[in-house]
Design goal:
414 residues; Rossmann fold; single chain; globular; five-stranded parallel sheet; Histidine-containing Protein, Chain: A
Length: 414
């Protein structure tokens, strides 16, 4: 039986349509949360972090950590495993990760005009029309960012992305479901040996991608009958050495019969390929209102392969800590608004796993005592020797890794 993917705008009767299709077909239902849970199990990455791959907003640390790319790779593996079965309805963002050459997939888009969507929001929730518009537009932006990343189009409703686009404000759910049911009966979406083979290729490419990203490499991966093609889209100084390393990793994946590497269009641009070394801390947040100092410090850390993001005030630091979860925070004490001691107090109360290193030019012994009592990892004075700071960051990161390693047996027992 074919697979159905349904990508819907918010407040476009998706739930009612899906229920009708399930009733008419007897298919099984897979939602984003199911694919995320599978990906989390495979990767040991928390589900909430994998789910962020669907968000338009990328972590400020992503260029150093490739967290989004790691999540996407594992989502593809989870989805490929699900596609070993047929007779499925896959709803949400994940279904759009299925390659176009898997022919037994009916791609459906549900949409309605804004007036109808706002009216549906008002029926379903107690909110104002303005609130409904804000929610719809924000969620449309999420979907537009998703299709922009996958298909290089900002129009998430582009008809070329789907087999059927249905205006649910004009057609009742049962009739929409009937249209979908009629179309899955057509020969063009019936599973064939070729389309099943495309699922196997998708599975192999996804497993190779996860093997590479786990070793810190972010490259394009395609597979065909065991032959894997790797595409390098950033410039690298020693291309042959990188190709050898990539080939060695890919060849260890069961099912790979050959590996070819090539450079893509991005290879000739200014970006430099950087392998992510997970032994080195790359989620460092620098917090200081002295912009020139903190930008110079960030550059000096980068020269030591320590990736960092910057916040210029306490309020911004707390927002980044809440949304992007740095491993290590380098924190000044004297800042306008929320000062460093208050930032330290709040961070250690809500996110105690973040290690905070105080770096100040105006602190006293009394300040140092307060900071260490609040849970600071270290207290350093400006001007600081960059090697001393680098060593302190790495020591904090080592503490974090030991804590995580100690937690693994506990999590495994649950």
């Amino acid at each position: 039986m074919p697979v159905i993917t349904i990508f819907s705008g918010s407040f476009c009767n998706e739930k009612q349509v899906v229920e009708e299709v399930l009733s008419q077909t007897g298919y099984g239902l897979i939602a984003d949360k199911d694919v995320v849970a599978d990906a989390s199990r495979i990767s040991h990455i928390p589900a909430n972090k994998i789910e962020r791959a669907f968000s338009a907003k990328t972590s400020v640390f992503n260029k150093f950590t490739h967290e989004r790319e790691r999540s996407l790779a594992h989502l593809r593996v989870a989805l490929a495993e699900r596609l070993a079965d047929d007779g499925l309805i896959i709803t949400g963002f994940a279904g759009q990760l299925i390659p176009r050459d898997i022919g037994h997939v009916l791609r459906v888009c549900l949409i309605a005009d804004m007036k109808a969507r706002v009216a549906a929001a008002l029926r379903e929730h107690k909110m104002s029309e303005l609130e409904a518009l804000k929610i719809i537009r924000r969620e449309d932006e999420e979907r537009a960012a998703w299709t922009q990343m996958l298909f290089d189009t900002k129009d998430q409703w582009d008809a070329s992305l789907y087999d059927i686009v249905v205006p649910t404000d004009k057609i009742p759910p049962a009739e929409v479901a009937g249209t979908i049911t009629e179309n899955i009966a057509k020969a063009v979406v019936k599973p064939t040996s070729r389309s099943k083979k495309a699922v196997d290729d998708f599975n192999l490419a996804a497993r190779v991608e996860t093997a590479l990203i786990t070793e810190g490499h972010n490259v394009g991966v395609k597979a065909r009958s065991g032959a894997v093609t790797l595409t390098i889209n950033k410039h690298v100084l020693m291309l042959n050495r990188l190709e050898d390393e990539l080939t060695s990793i890919a060849n260890r994946v069961p099912g790979v019969t050959s590996v070819e590497s090539k450079v893509g269009p991005g290879y000739y641009q200014a970006d430099i390929y950087r392998r992510q070394d997970f032994e080195i801390p790359s989620k460092i947040l620098l917090v200081d209102d002295e912009r020139e100092f903190v930008q110079t410090l960030s550059e000096r850390l980068m020269m030591r392969d320590l990736g960092s993001a910057v916040a210029y005030d306490g309020e911004s630091a707390l927002e980044v800590a809440r949304e992007d979860e740095p491993d290590v925070m380098i924190l000044d004490l004297r800042m306008p608004g929320i000062d460093g001691i208050e930032v330290l107090r709040r961070v250690k109360k809500t996110q105690p796993a973040i290690e905070v290193i105080i770096l100040t030019g105006h602190g006293s012994e009394a300040d140092k005592k307060v900071c260490m009592e609040l849970g600071a990892f270290a207290y350093l004075q400006k001007p600081v020797d960059i090697d001393e700071l680098s060593g302190t960051i790495k020591a904090a990161h080592d503490k974090i890794r030991r804590t995580r390693d100690d937690m693994k047996p506990i999590e495994a027992d649950r």
